[in-house]
Amino acid sequence: MSSESLPTLRWGIIATGQISSWFVRDLSLSRPDAKARHTIAAIGSSSQGKGEAFVKQWIPDVLPAPKVYAGYEQVYNHPDVDIIYIGTPHAFHKQNCLAAIAAGKHVLCEKAFTLNARDAKEVFAAAENKGVFVMEALWTRFFPLVQQLQRLVHEENVIGSVHRVFADLGLDQDFASLGPDSRLRNPALGAGTLLDICIYSLTWGLLALDAKVGEEAEKPVIKAVQTLFDSIDVASTVVLYYPSTGRQAICTSTAMFKTPDLFCRIEGTNGYITVEGVSASRPSAFTIYAKDEGTTEGKRYTVANPGFGLFWEADAIAHDIAAGRKESAVMPWAETIRVMEMMDEARRQGGARFPVDD
Ligand SMILES: NC(=O)c1ccc[n+]([C@@H]2O[C@H](COP(=O)([O-])OP(=O)(O)OC[C@H]3O[C@@H](n4cnc5c(N)ncnc54)[C@H](OP(=O)(O)O)[C@@H]3O)[C@@H](O)[C@H]2O)c1
Asked: Where is the Gfo/Idh/MocA-like oxidoreductase N-terminal domain (predicted)?
């Protein structure tokens, strides 16, 4: 496909925090094998100065330079914007999504999509009414490495039937030093490890145990405990249990310890797979130890990643939108709801509450 015939998306970026800085850098990477073209038309920030500093720091060479606005409203309504990327804390995702949808824009919204499943359903209902594309930015599922692993596990059965998965994402967040307004400390902003990072451990449990997503996938039983600090969870352990087969996943998160590179083990009847990377959100390699290979040496797989790896989801969305689809087959609305419901149940058992729950 020549670069002229690739689908193109014109992005409007909401918020200029850490993940938005990664996203705009990935969108503007020069990638010879890119499957889509991306331009950044507009950026909205809480202040003009902050927005301009963001452009200067992270994408100074992008031409034409994106228009910068104080506030988000002009980005939602911008005539040169096809799709809004939402990089605010989770607690604002619902209102940001609803505003973008009301303006008739497609939406890619960071995880966790909302604070609970009820709010996620409200956003998807609005998207359905308006006929726009919406997706939760579960970028990890779009890594070619992850899709290759899923093919090997579910189609080629390289380790037989998968019966157990361990997945962990821990960060050393030095909680005591965080201010009360930090999105990691403030319950009104959706603080806690469950929605912030355990969502990736859950993703690994699910993608290793389920060949399917959304409504086609079985709903596991949830058993959860949480360690609370000022009503937010600083550690969560969520067990997924599938009564039909007895398979299990132990999905964990903590704010008190950085997980070593090897963050996941997938066990099957014919061997096991280890997955490594800087975190469960950004895998960089996996190794298959298959019993029937007759060797203790594993077979290692890697895929080149020239940036953070957020461009893969962006490329996939460009193709979905060009094809007129309103949701992604990789991360459909029903999968977001399935995972939000699991996290709602984990919080019900574990005790972490958000003001919006009441
Ligand atoms: N950081 C990561 O590695 C990562 C990875 C994947 C997903 N995510 C998700 O992305 C979202 C944002 O995370 P982040 O790490 O980028 O957060 P962050 O660095 O704190 O940035 C959040 C941005 O949201 C805007 N904002 C609007 N109202 C806010 C408020 N009351 N308090 C704080 N910020 C407010 C601010 O941008 P303006 O001032 O420009 O409006 C702020 O810079 C979260 O839902 C997170 O789960 C983060």
From this structure: 9-136
> What phi, psi does 337 have (nearest 5°)?
-65, -40
Cα 278 to ligand 1 centre (Å): 20
Of the residues 18, 55, 86, 197, which should be mutated to test ligand 1's pocket, given the most ligand atoms within 8 Å of the CB?
18
Residue 13 has pLDDT above 80, yes or no: yes
Residues 208, 229 within the same domain:
yes
Minimal-distance CA residue to ligand 1 atom 39:
46
pLDDT at site 2: 60
What is the torsional sign of CA 184, 135, 116, 252? Answer: negative
Nearby residues of 113 by Cβ (< 8 Å), 6 or more positions away: 90, 93, 120, 123, 136, 336, 340
Neighbours of 47 (CB within 10 A): 12
Ligand 1 interacting residues, C-beta cut-off 6 A: 15-19, 45-46, 50, 87-90, 92, 110-111, 183, 196
- Minimum CA distance residue for ligand 1 atom 4: 19
- Going from the Cα of 187 to the center of ligand 1, the distance in angstroms, rounded, reads 14
Q: In the structure, what pLDDT confidence band is assigned to residue 358 with cuts at 50, 70 and 90?
A: confident
- The residue whose CA is least distant from atom 30 of ligand 1 is 89
At 187, which CATH number? 3.30.360.10
Whether 113 and 82 map to the same domain: the answer is yes
